[in-house]
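$ fold --in a.seq
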Amino acid sequence: MPYFDAASTAPLHPVARQALLAALDEGWADPARLHRSARQARMLLDAARETVAEALGARADEVSFTASGTQALQLGVLGALRGHRRRGAHLVHSAVEHSAVLHTAERWEADGGTATSVPVDRHGRVDAAEFAAAVRPDTALAVLQSANHEVGTLQPVTETAALLGDVPLLVDAAQSAGRLPVPAGWSVLAASAHKWGGPAGVGVLAVRKGVRFSSALPADDREGGRVPGFPNVPAIVAAAASLRAVRAGAEAEDARLRELVDLVRHRVPQLVPAVEVVGHPELRLPHLVTFSCLYVDGEVLLTGLDRAGFAVSSGSSCTSSTLTPSHVLAAMGVLTEGNLRVSLPAGTTRAEVEAFLDVLPRVVAEVRAPLGLDLPAPGPAAAPEPGPGPGSEPEPEPVLVLDTLGKHCPVPVIELAKRIGEVAPGGRVAVLSDDEAARHDIPAWCEMCGHTYAGEAPAAEYGGARGTAYLVRRA
């Protein structure tokens, strides 16, 4: 089965496997002790730390190993905030950071701190000047990812860091470490080994010398006092070995994968009607592409592709038990339903990508078939129908009310698409919904299809017992 979900976790690199097996025999002892086996483990741990530090552009004594990338982010955010608490208790982050950052920010606010979320554009990229403008005199930390985990957009880390003055910047490099050079300007950095082909259970937390840091956990003398607990030396050795191997061939492999991703970005809109490729077209990770299909349940689409032999992922709300829309796609203002993320691991062939492109249109068509929608042919969207000419006054049209209360995922948008033809051009439709995804997906649908989103109102104004009325004017 072609595995196209490397952004979640990359397959274990052969070098990592070899290093892990060897280190299980040589590095099992406690590196903090003084006997021979312990000294051997300590030598392996120190060598691994040197390797990771060199790859990340850090000093060895700046690097600590954690149990995961998530833990590295959480400890990094809280430790830097605590270390700079004399400056204040304000945190700045982008709206599309990993959920580990957002949940940590929520905890920080619950404990009395404050946080500002900086919006992104439709490509998922922050404006460096706007991000810096969110900094206040009491800002203790800024957080900005190097590349987005859902859509692949690269962030202007170096440009932003130059505008922050003496405010420390934490960079989440989980998706880019091992693939792209680490951007300059970071004060604290987090990464995750299983994203580059190392074993799961190894994260990296790097803190520049001179950056104040106070661990949020009880004191421990391991890992520079930043991360308590016994380090998994064999896994750390394997992580370092695979990082060195991946970095050695990254330039050539990234160029090859970028060509395959460009093929997907170009062909999908030609093969599948009513689809939007999201993320920045140029400033992006080389191996990742994300697109959203209208009128499709993301979980059903994933299941269909899995049966066809392809492992991909989705940021759609329907793939989550909470039915919460992807915060990344919502912040971008694009469709949060029917979303597919294709992330290619090293070694992916053109034949595998071509096979995926052969299967995708059939799977999407099968999911859409029961809906009875008259979809346009694939390709660029047709121009909207012309409205009334200058000086003419259209006859007032009654508002068509669609009650989709209690229904989730793409149903409100599907009903809108089915019935908007019942109103004349310029006429209005009110979609009643109590699903949070509708707040993002109905405007995104209007953007994709050329209609006008006219805002929202209480559903009670249109006969609804609860929820919100989303107003659309037909082109």
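$ fold --in b.seq
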Amino acid sequence: MKGRVIVLGSAVAAAFAFSIWLNKPDLDLEPLAPATLESPTLPQIKAGEYLVQIGNCVACHTAQGGAPFAGGRAVPTPFGEVYSSNLTSDDETGLGRWTNQDFYRAMRHGRSKDDRWLSPAFPYTSYTNLKREDSDAMFAWLQTLPPVKRAQTPDTLRFPYGTQLATRAWRALYFKPATTADIAAMDRGRYLVEGLGHCAACHTSRGALGGLRNKMSYMGGEIASLGWDALSLVPSKPMTDSEANELGQLLKTGINTHKAVAGPMSEVVFHSLQHLNDADLAAIVATLRALPPADAPPAPRVPQVSPEQRQSLRARGKVVYAEHCADCHGDAGEGRANVYPALAGNANVNAVSATNTLNLTLNGGFPPSTAGNPFPYGMPPFSQSLSRPDVAAVLTYVRSEWGNDAPAVSVVEVERR
């Protein structure tokens, strides 16, 4: 009996200690800096609009067909869907009753006004690098948005991923808040790439629990549950001045002499990157250019293709390419400058995973309409006009021709789409 009492007492003590840990205040976090301005000024509000564009907030916080920034867009994760919140000035369902201190704590520490731990689908792991004056400016601009009453759509995460316990544990594993000294040490390019631009959220692969694999930072990988891959931002070799200029044009307009963005990156360019001023664009390019060259990430598991099958696919693919692709992309995959991307040397084409090229071939796609490229040329879908074996054949051909060297695409891989 005495042993049972001891065990019961230990369990109660452990539960009590655990409840304290779960609900403890941010004692381990650096105290938040005070507000930079009590009453926002017009220049501060204008600066906030620009910063909100850099953060691409409208993309996640606008549901399809919904009012801008009113929330409700589903953010798919391997654990279920998280729905974005209302950022308009509505008192009941938006940020109308928030203060700039509440907003700054959400951005820097990942805690809501009501003290909840926020889902890591909201990239506070990057926003923790935000300066106080920038947070205040963003909040000042968001407060100028007309109020839209739209209640929060409940998340549909599987148990236990949607619980505060799981979020608290995730933070203990993966979230290290930045200090003021960390932020002050960043140059402008790092501040934009690692902070407000939250590039790592897509361009760094994630582990089984959704935490970023920091040892593979910016090396690309699958964007969980979106059905697209983010390409590596790490140069495979030192970038020349010409290549750096081409990268800047791609980020600003969505297209350059040899390349065009597609998929989720089109949305990033449309809502965010095209609005960058020249100095910030140059700072981002300089930061990406300075990333140390690295090897490609581990190859995904795909159905194997024998040498005989590969040869057969290539032969058929050459015929399909001449009939359906060469008119735009050229007989030698050279493309057409600033119109149709080259396929020779194309990063998507040469990626180990064929996910992006499969998406574009089957479903088509357009670069974004930008000030620098207002009427983009698009890729038509071929899912209705080409058989699955023909899709596998033409992609195998393209991925192994003109100096390209990527794995063959099997018919099984196409069928899975």
